[in-house]
C-alpha cells in the first residue's frame, strides 16, 4: 500500500487538517525559527481582493463557479491529465470537480 492510498482512506475533516498543520508548525528544531498560520484561506483571499480592489460578491463568485462546473474543455483536460498520471487514474471528473467547487465555495462564497 502506498502513502496516497493510506492518506485517501483517512477520514479527515478541515479541523483535523488545521490541527495537523498547527502541530507541525509548533515542532521546535532549535533553529530559532517559528511558524504560525496567520490567515485562513477566506481571510487571505479577502485581503488580497481588497488590496487589488477586486471584490467579488457571492453572486458573482457563484456565477463563475457555475461556468467552471459546466466547462467541457476542463473536463477534456482532466481526462488527458488522468491518462498521463497514474495517481489520478481513479479520480473521476465529477468527483474532482465537486470537491474543487466545494472547497472554493468555502473560501469565496
Mean model confidence by pLDDT: 78
Rg for CA atoms: 18 Å
| Unreliable parts | none
Count of separate structural domains: 1
Q: Helix share of residues?
A: 55-70%
Can you write the helix and strand succession as a string?
A: HHHHHH
Shape: extended
- Distance between the terminal alpha carbons, to the nearest Å? 37 Å
Structural class: mainly alpha
Task: Please give the number of β-strands.
Answer: 0
Percent range for β-strand residues: under 5%
Verbal overview:
The protein is mainly α and 109 residues long. The chain has one domain. Helices cover 65% and strands 0% of the residues. The chain is built from six helices and no strands. Helix 4 runs antiparallel to helix 6 (93-108).
Amino acid at each position: 500500500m502506498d502513502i496516497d492510498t493510506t492518506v485517501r482512506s483517512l477520514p479527515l475533516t478541515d479541523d483535523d487538517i488545521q490541527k495537523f498543520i498547527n502541530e507541525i508548525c509548533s515542532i521546535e528544531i532549535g533553529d530559532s525559527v517559528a511558524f504560525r498560520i496567520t490567515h485562513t484561506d477566506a481571510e487571505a483571499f479577502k485581503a488580497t481582493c481588497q488590496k487589488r480592489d477586486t471584490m467579488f460578491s457571492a453572486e458573482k463568485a457563484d456565477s463563475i463557479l457555475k461556468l467552471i462546473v459546466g466547462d467541457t474543455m476542463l473536463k477534456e483536460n482532466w481526462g488527458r491529465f488522468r491518462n498521463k498520471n497514474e495517481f489520478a487514474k481513479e479520480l473521476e471528473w465529477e468527483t474532482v470537480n465537486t470537491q474543487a467547487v466545494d472547497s472554493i465555495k468555502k473560501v469565496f462564497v
